Input
Amino acid sequence: MMKRRVLGQWFAAVLSASLLALAPLAHAADEAPDALIKRLSDEVLSTIRADATLKQGDVAKIMTLVDGKIMPNVNFQRMTAAAVGPAWRQATPEQQKRLQDEFKTLLVRTYSGALAQIDDQTVSLKPLRASPTDTEVVVRSEVRGRGEPIQLDYRLEKTPGQGAGWKIYNLNVLGVWLVETYRSQFAQEITAKGVDGLIATLAERNRSNAARKG
Output
């Protein structure tokens, strides 16, 4: 039980770091995906250590950061669609927008309190297994600090056209992919209550999280 609780704390801390690691991609179009992850990971760890309000879990500030710097560099529609599963295709545009909004709020509020756990961690990347022509890759890394190294992997896709570059659409912490974890939870809600039921459940969970964190 203790190991499960500690791993859960690490999951939250590492996921928070990875979400906040996505600063504006000034030269992402020609930057290798592993180099991108390494640079941004180093930058975010420095930023979190230097910003007391981020470490205290200031949700409003984190939301501003997410909207301004993170979301332009994540394929969050793909992430949400994959988490919702087949029901996404049957959802209306309004339902899809509400699902994305509530899912984003859930992630931010769930993991904002974990920022205080960021301390002396560093990120080490493993060799990239990909060819130059690949448009989807997995970047594998370890977060090293006190205790055992923590596995943190990213799924990225290379997007063409305007805003071309690598975008993250899934995360793996300690062998557990974020999208797949939420997909199993969401599937139960959709089966029982439909898409509108899932939206209502997410909204209620977000309200409860907000009330607990003030």
Strands lie at 122-125, 136-144, 150-159, 165-173, 176-177. The chain has a mean pLDDT of 80. The longest helix spans residues 178-213. The chain has one domain: 2-213.
